[in-house]
What we know:
The structure is a homodimer. By secondary structure, chain A is mainly α.
Amino acid sequence: MSAEKENTEEKILEAAKEVFIEKGNDGTRMQEIADKAGINKSLLHYYYRSKEKLFGAVFKFAFTHFAPNIINIITDNNDDFFTLIRKFVSLYIDIVMKNPFIPMFILGEVNKKGPSTFVNVIKSAGINPQAFRDRIQKEIDSGNIKPIDPNQLLINTIGMCIFPIIGRPIIQVVLFDDNKLEYIKFLESRKKEVAEFVINSIKK
Amino acid sequence: MSAEKENTEEKILEAAKEVFIEKGNDGTRMQEIADKAGINKSLLHYYYRSKEKLFGAVFKFAFTHFAPNIINIITDNNDDFFTLIRKFVSLYIDIVMKNPFIPMFILGEVNKKGPSTFVNVIKSAGINPQAFRDRIQKEIDSGNIKPIDPNQLLINTIGMCIFPIIGRPIIQVVLFDDNKLEYIKFLESRKKEVAEFVINSIKK
DNA sequence: GTCTATACGGTGATAGAC
DNA sequence: GTCTATCACCGTATAGAC
């Protein structure tokens, strides 16, 4: 997917992303990363001193490329609020559909190690919930939507976007008799369904 | 929490639940389970032949004690639909609050191994989404609620209940400045907030 | 920078005494 | 049933040649 003649360090990181994100820290073997990068195992330690450091690089990538894109849709946005919600939901579901393992990876690792290990990454990711809260409050004050706790609205919306992705194996089996196409169709239609669900709930 | 003089097999399973559910299959060491059970490592293999088998017992427990309780609230229920939703959401959030690691455990493992490994457990868990779909359809046909795809409504509702639990480390840091009490309060109020959010969205 | 060889501590699993 | 001792293997990490 990237350039053919990338340097070794980059090749390692790309391979590490694939393995770590799919298998998690505990499930990842340095040997597998080396194989996938087409280099020797000890080269991993030459570029990244330890497994932990390599993992850290992968986690940082995963988190910073996911969290901020979401919230930043909101900041500096001139759409009316319902249009904003439709764009947000559609874009977010699209992102997680294209990177289905990343949410599970982030949530799994953060739950295992606790936020303390990642608090630097999390804080430096540029997430600014206040901008979101402010926008909601403005809409409420203007009488455009029903009163609601902005945090609740945010978690509701993100939860509805992410859960069907991380719950895929169960959802596909239980709801769609393990039919992959039915599941994909279901997910695709959520881009509109979730937005309308949210809008219906808060509109006056 | 259980009887003092439980037999060894039971002690092992209890210890295994704690470790597996908190650390996942890859992160679990047989030694840790033995220590927690207060017995020797080789006794684990005497009662459960392998780590895989022991894991299987834990997963089966976790899944069967979680999934069905949810859906069965719906079956054979005589409440009006909005009361049903309020009960469902409140009970479900209460369950996951009391067992916060189980959703992450189930989702993590199912995503890692794929549903094929657990398809027996999943299918034998007694989940019956059709009963739920039928109930929704009845409400729509009766004109009590707006038309909506029952699957979408189900995933929306469950997603809003589970996501704040598995996303806790991030949510607590980003939204509540790592204030534990604020997070708990937020979760507690969701028992009502989520139900009203759903009801607002589907009521006519 | 990249390789081979190896150290060193675990890890699941088994054998065998009691 | 429960223990100790031990096995065969695998994991990360390092040393050192080229």
